[in-house]
């Protein structure tokens, strides 16, 4: 099983935005002083590089590969994380609705893995058609039950037996 999803964790994006703003301000300051113009030009080039990284990060989908014995998540600029099914103690999904301005809302789905010594989680934006979901609650349930992470959770649960805790 191989699927793509859009990462909804924007923490790294905000880190790049803050760094870009700081470098932009530093390059303006350096360019205004004749003796350190070279540093300002260097900062401006690095700032443009950060902008490119931000654009690539927010537009590149993440992927997961589920095999017979493990699942691997690949996130751009962060790397890969592999989880073996034998290490999973529990797996569950949470969903949240984020209401934005002008009534637009987005759904975020997070799959959680409780392992021996840690917990791993991966979040994705859900493609929910709210136009049809508002008409029927059953349609919303069907859309959520057919999401990528729900299918992954079902696939993993077929591969292992999780004891009741």
Describe the structure.
The protein is of the alpha+beta class and 165 residues long. The chain has 2 domains: 7-59; 63-159, PH-domain like (Roll), CATH 2.30.29. Helix content is 43%, strand content 30%. It is built from 5 helices and 7 strands. It has helices at residues 11-31, 37-59, 130-135, 137-145, 148-159; strands at 2-5, 62-66, 70-75, 79-84, 90-99, 105-114, 119-126. A 4-stranded antiparallel beta sheet has the order 1-2-3-4, covered by helices on one side. A 3-stranded antiparallel beta sheet has the order 5-6-7, with helices on one face. A hairpin with a 3-residue loop joins strand 3 and strand 4. Helix 1 (11-31) runs antiparallel to helix 2 (37-59). The mean pLDDT is 78.
Strand percentage lies at: 25-35%
What are the secondary-structure elements, in order, as H or E? Answer: EHHEEEEEEHHH
Mean pLDDT: 78
Spatial separation of the terminal alpha carbons: 28 Å
How many β-strands, per DSSP? 7
Major pleated sheet: 4 strands, antiparallel
Number of helices: 5
Radius of gyration: 21 Å
Q: Spans of 5+ residues with little confidence (pLDDT < 50)?
A: none
Strand order of the largest sheet: 1-2-3-4
What characteristic shape results from the CA principal axes?
Answer: elongated
Here the CATH topology of the largest domain equals PH-domain like
Structural class: alpha+beta
* Proportion in helices: 40-55%
Q: Please report the first level of CATH classification, the CATH class of the largest domain.
A: Mainly Beta
How many domains, as an integer? 2
CATH architecture of the largest domain: Roll
